[in-house]
Amino acid sequence: MTADATFWDRIADRYAARPVKNMTAYEQTLERTRAYLRDTDTVLELGCGTGTTALRLAGDAGQITATDIAPRMIAIARGKIAAQGADNVAAEVATAHDAPVPARGYDAVLGFNYLHLLPDMEETLARVHAMLRPGGLFISKTVCLGAAPHLRALIWVMQRLGKAPHVRFLDVATLEAAIAAQGFEIVETGDYPARPVSRFVVARKAEARG
């Protein structure tokens, strides 16, 4: 496993036990995501953690494949899926680069609290674009910390001690430019919460021209 996968695997049980920090922002994220999903959609979630969001959205999509790099996260997710009896949700250890892709592409790809944790954000965005059908949606929420020099220094020390994963210090403009650069049209944005900024973005893959 990569260093980041090992980190998330090690903290998976503690992560699963923690309550959602900002339930109002989380519910807003779910509400706006549901507005774009149909009960026939085939959906991929990247960085699913222990599967909570995939299960909350199970009734709003046809099929959801929830993926994460940490095997322990996925083991917990599978237990929750079985307990809930959500037969339209599957959980797999995968990244954007090796996740299964249906022949017609996904209707939607989700990535919540995800992009700022990637060392290869641009490559992942390109891969997400390729996995979507024409007109498909990438729905994400990303922590945007800006420059934050003091926090950057603290996280650097924690990373050296194995107590923090890779973190990218993004601002909203840089994030949205990176998404648009891969061929997406941004159709909705929001901040859930506004402080620290967690930027919600709905981006559509352009329809193929014939």
Q: Give the assembly state of these chains.
A: single chain
Structural class: alpha/beta
- What is the fourth-level CATH superfamily? Vaccinia Virus protein VP39
Instruction: Please provide the count of β strands.
Output: 7
Strand arrangement, largest sheet?
A: 3-2-1-4-5-7-6
Tell me the fraction of residues in β-strands, as a range: 15-25%
- Per CATH, the class reads Alpha Beta
- How does the major sheet shape up? 7 strands, mixed
Please name the CATH architecture: 3-Layer(aba) Sandwich
SSE map:
Elements: H1 3-10, H2 12-17, H3 23-34, E1 42-46, H4 52-56, E2 63-68, H5 71-84, E3 89-93, E4 106-112, H6 121-131, E5 132-143, H7 149-160, H8 172-181, E6 184-191, E7 198-205
Parallel strand pairs: 1-2, 1-4, 2-3, 4-5
Antiparallel strand pairs: 5-7, 6-7
Can you give keywords for this protein?
210 residues, 7-stranded mixed beta sheet, 37% helix, Rossmann fold, 7 strands, alpha/beta
How would you describe this protein?
The protein is of the alpha/beta class and 210 residues long. It has one domain (3-205): 3-Layer(aba) Sandwich (Rossmann fold). Helix content is 37%, strand content 24%. The protein is built from eight helices and seven strands.
